[in-house]
UniProtKB/TrEMBL annotation, chains A, B, C, D:
It comes from the Bacteria. GO terms for molecular function: diaminobutyrate-2-oxoglutarate transaminase activity; diaminobutyrate-pyruvate transaminase activity; pyridoxal phosphate binding. One of its GO terms (biological process) is ectoine biosynthetic process. InterPro entries: Aminotrans_3, Aminotrans_3_PPA_site, Dat, Ectoine_EctB, PyrdxlP-dep_Trfase, PyrdxlP-dep_Trfase_major, PyrdxlP-dep_Trfase_small. This is Diaminobutyrate--2-oxoglutarate transaminase. The keyword Transferase applies. Keywords: Aminotransferase, Pyridoxal phosphate, Transferase. The keyword Transferase applies. Its EC number is 2.6.1.76. Pathway: Amine and polyamine biosynthesis; ectoine biosynthesis; L-ectoine from L-aspartate 4-semialdehyde: step 1/3. Its cofactor is pyridoxal 5'-phosphate. Belongs to the class-III pyridoxal-phosphate-dependent aminotransferase family. NCBIfam families: dat (TIGR00709), ectoine_ectB (TIGR02407), PRK09264.1 (NF006733).
């Protein structure tokens, strides 16, 4: 019995799907301890948008470590943090005219969501936060309470309260006007819905099954929040950092959220880092009111700065993501209907899902793809969707190779 | 106005105490961007027990990055993780006969605490968790609910429930028998205290003011939990990894907690990493029931393995910590009573606190020490305690130098 | 200043609407201390279905008091309680084939709702209870949490949790399929709705604006609860005891709820009394697990028994209620459209509402009606509905007289 | 099988202790359907301080019913309510200089407690309410959350939150200074206790085992609440209305609570009625913010007025209660030590408890007393206390007779 089986908790999960011991990685490829190579259409669940061990970032990282740059900085001022803040301001915020303060809430996505929820409740003096069906925001109690998945929720061991779910876009296959239920509850003071402090939303629900909100739905949500004095939080942890094309996933809709959570690919190198951004006027935090040991993960600031400088000073990345995405879409919609069992494709930028009518099929496809050398994850409550999340920096050849394998896996599991 | 003031949230805190922009660091010293050097009696709030950028760990880290070892691994099996698990088993668990499974709950302390609380509630089917006066366990909602500090609690924006505080050791200056109140509530089924799923405790409360629990108090707590079928969680995030002498802070008391949280110095290099350890029989997690993007921060596994191998295969580290600690104790208790305003010293291993009768004095001492080139933090609810937390690997000379500065700072602030 | 203004809390409400000091009452008429008489279309908010001081019940009550029958009995066995239970079984339960145990949960409606919710949660081991938009179930914390009205909810002083509102019948003017949202949330394990222990519903929402659920909607709700293993609680506090025709308001739909709350008119005389009925198999209460000082209000048992014997051993009461109701409906729908500002009438049995487009109109109508000698209450979140709730035993002449006054009040307020 | 066993819920309790079917009652005696007479040392759990069917009140009640006085009045102004308010002001409030507004919160004790808690939380804008070990305040969710009994709490079916228990007087047999723990938690902003909105206390805990708080303890509590800006709620439901001597049980301590709940014997006749009294400045209720169907139980106002007029315009009642109490005390302390197994007596006014060392003994004593014709209840979490609660109006002969029976029951159960 391996040490993983003997010593590691039953909670481990990906290692069951992909029974290999990985050793090293480069770009869109991982290699296991036996030297076998795998193409990666998973990208650290969206944390490796620039590929594994991206050489540009790697160089900056090693240089920083070599010269004994500050590693652990809490929320002390450091030269690495300053470089990041200035670059983030120059490359990301200012060009998009985004009026945000930057908070380092701790280096994980759920830390960022907790901070966002705390701030929203403090600002508005209300407890309820609205989330959406099939949302995923994290595993600590605050984030879990606005997460849809019943299996994850049951892990809390206490009732999860102060949240209320609303239907995400397309939840009723577009037969029901958007926000009919939500707005009716808000305008009816006898509805039983306590006025929420905030709404938290993903523009594309990655864990929830690659559910894509339309731009007009997001705009209507932005408008509804404004009219009812509710803060809009966009959780851009998985869909930000270029995954859908623009740096933030909400840019395409032309909206400005009140609060934004960013993590996963923000460090660019897979290093733990996250941000909570919010309108300047919302910055009512007292010094030290929220803290955390690893807020100042300076090596991550270094790679984050390098990633912004390398990829976001012009629009090449965004264009390439679109081009890649179109190719994926073409491939998925071109799948043989019989072979794919009428699977439905949906996505935006370079995140795509293929939903099978038969709930067991997606797992079979991923399993077969793994055997063929491709890492692919399922998503959705019933694991009914194959999720495609290749590095944004993948080469056209590798993208083609991966799609071919996926095609074979679909074909061989029918 | 600097980018920190302009762009970073008001929540930032340490950068206000130490108004410098730090650039690099080595061992027990940091250097700011102007080349000024500071001795470090803070050690990343306990995350840098082996000093800044420890050369042994640094070599391993750079080597790993150079060879493109897996950086981001979720909970996939990797060679780096295997090496860590095997080393942790060989060097830490087996020699101490600790019957634990290892969970990677996400790389921060609060992630580990959230996982511990979730598991305890799941196992026992109860909601209440008992914590202690002046406890500190983290900033996400689950951890915050068992944290004592009213200022931090108010940040939640919702009422924090399912927790109940009990008096920590010495809370009544030893005039009251230990656990009198707690046990009376448990044995009286009319007391109004719902039987707790777990008790969560720090053996030394770092943030709470360097409050040290006696070994016999911890043993009595262990016994009480056993008698009432309550799980005992030791939060060893700040006090573990050798801070008090032994690897775990509870070893000296001869107790075996049911659940242990470990973070801060576990990676050895200040990289985000945490563990939740629990008795094998408690491992009722379903695969994937708790997850998180940065659970598999493999560079941290690499430095963690190197740290365990370099420092914990014999008892030199433990002995040195004791020696350093005795020297600190001697110094603190030898402070001129008039100069120090009858400040009281307390501590264990290499964590020490100096509590001033005048609540404003500790901040003045730290501020003066900073001016003299020493980083020192206050702790306690009223910031009434100067906390000494030097790297365990500090040299005798540096330790002496730091104590001298502290002596001057005390003297110059009377 | 009167003693009411000087000494009674600001919370008092009806005495503001009807500024008179009432002294005595008989049937459908009250008389104030100046001898002025008022016709009563309010009936103690549904507590006086048999009219004020009904002579049949009055005789039984005085007789019982005269002979020193037990007044206060907690849950002791008494001859008065036995008579009630036997009569309730013979006259109500057995003819309708209702398989219920009877609990005396305390003499108010909110006591009954609290007991129902406690039992449902105990039985199912779940916390969430679904209620409906514009529901009203009571003012104690458990009942308030499933009540829709935001103004009432705010009185709690704590966040009200463990409830989730769903759309009542006609909430979207029948443009949306019934239970579309509710069932979708239940079947989608990623929806974020925790599986509820129970659904609590009024068949006609009295306080919520006289909203009438269709029989087929109630049947579909019954069916949905069965399919998802959720208990169905009908709160028949205001609509039971013959108000809609049959003894229970759910009879017409042909459904059998799992739990039923009964209060208001159950004693028949306006004396505090309530029941919680539930399927035999749900009776998992431990002796004394729920208690209350006034559960055994024996004078109320006496009048309740007399009321059942006098009015429910044949179908005359039910028929008369229907006849009265048809007359009210005819009158309301025949109101001059211009005069009534296109007010909409709705109701069932002898509970009717007249909703005005102009929110301020209903209060004006009630105020004018009072000046003309008729007690009429508004209902609905915005007090936009005039509610007609005459005693069921009202004479045809009095009913006509009241409707005439209402007609004048409508006419004179346009 | 009787209708009680067949039809009534398992939750029934007293009818198991006293297996008789009671029919009528007068003064301190009940008669069952077989004509057997029982002396009553239970008094409706404190609801029958003036005895069963007190002739003075009975006359007023029948007169009122005969003349068709308003029975059910919600919160309408009535002549009966006015008479009560004026009498209550003249006889109770003014002579004691109590600056209270009067709220009719619904006719049960738990309604009054719910109203008190809601108001306290509204006024202070805080959620937490401190209660005491072995407290009993009611069965609806708000009241249950501040009740100590674990068995009753478990009935809630949800976690009970927003409450914190503190030690009642004598909880540590006077070895610990009063309020040591409570005040320490309040003054320590790191204690983990959220500042409470209110403290709720019984001066003598009836259900909790006849635990008597000393006057100086109550004064210290009053003082502590004032110093920390916490509202003091005295729950005088069981101990008010003369049970301990004065009309309110807190009078003897010379304190003025901010809020007082009154119920049980306030109507004097065992009819459901309750009051919530509070300082005028706390009356921030909006009209109708708290309501309830049976707030205006006018027959209860009539008997309440008659009781106040008959018994509280001079000090005879108070003196007689003291005299009776002294006799009971003398009897209990004079019990043969061997026979009584060193039972300990405690009490105040005419409420007394006899605590047996052997937990099973009290039930045996009560059971034997019942066989000998005396109703006696146990109290305390383990039912370890025999509780003596005779009507205040009991005759010296009947009191002697009851004590004799108790003596025999003790003797015959050793």
């Amino acid at each position: 019995m391996s040490v993983f089986e003997r010593l590691e908790s039953n909670v481990r999960s990906y290692c069951r799907t992909w029974p290999a011991v990985f050793d090293c990685a480069q770009g869109a490829r991982l290699t296991d301890e036996n030297g076998r190579s795998y193409l990666d259409f998973f990208a650290g669940a969206g944390s490796l948008n620039y590929g594994h061990n991206n050489p540009v970032l790697k160089r900056a990282l090693i240089e920083y470590i070599e010269r004994d740059g500050i590693t652990h900085g809490l929320d002390m001022a450091t030269t690495a943090k300053r470089a990041f803040l200035e670059t983030f301001e120059d490359v990301v915020l200012r060009p998009r005219d985004l009026p945000y303060k930057v908070m380092f809430p701790g280096p994980t996505g759920t830390n960022a969501v907790e901070a966002a929820l705390k701030l929203a409740r403090k600002v508005k003096g209300r407890e309820c936060v609205v989330s959406f069906t099939n949302s995923f925001h994290g595993m600590s109690l605050g984030a879990l309470a606005v997460t849809g998945n019943a299996f994850k929720r049951a892990g809390a061991g206490i009732p999860l309260v102060h949240g209320a779910p609303m239907p995400f876009d397309h939840y009723f296959d577009d037969t029901i006007p958007d926000f009919l239920w939500f707005e009716r509850l808000l305008e009816d003071r006898g509805s039983g819905l306590d006025v929420p402090a905030a709404v938290i939303v993903e523009t594309v629900q990655g864990e929830g099954g690659v559910n894509v909100a339309r731009a007009e739905w997001l705009r209507a949500l932005r408008d509804l929040c404004r009219r009812y004095d509710i803060l809009l939080i966009v959780d851009d942890i998985q869909m930000g950092c270029g995954r859908t094309g623009g740096f933030f996933s909400f840019e395409a809709a032309g909206i400005v959220p009140d609060i934004v959570t960013v993590s996963k690919s923000i460090s660019g190198y897979g290093l733990p880092m996250s941000l909570c951004l919010f309108r300047t006027g919302l910055d009512i935090w007292q010094p030290g009111e929220h803290n955390g040991t690893f807020r100042g993960n300076n090596p991550a600031f270094v790679t984050a700065t390098a990633a912004l400088s390398a990829y976001w000073t012009d629009d090449r990345m965004e264009k390439q993501t679109r081009t890649h995405g179109e190719r994926v879409e073409e491939f998925l919609t071109g799948l043989d209907e019989t072979a794919a069992g009428n699977a439905k494709a949906r996505g935006r930028g370079l995140v795509w899902g293929l939903e099978f009518a038969d709930d067991t099929r997606a797992a079979k496809v991923c399993s077969r793809a793994f055997a063929l050398g491709l890492l692919l994850e399922t998503s959705g409550t019933r694991s009914e969707v194959v999720k495609l999340l290749p590095p944004l920096t993948i080469s056209p050849d590798e993208l083609g190779e991966g799609l071919d394998i996926l095609g074979r896996a679909v074909d061989e599991t029918r």
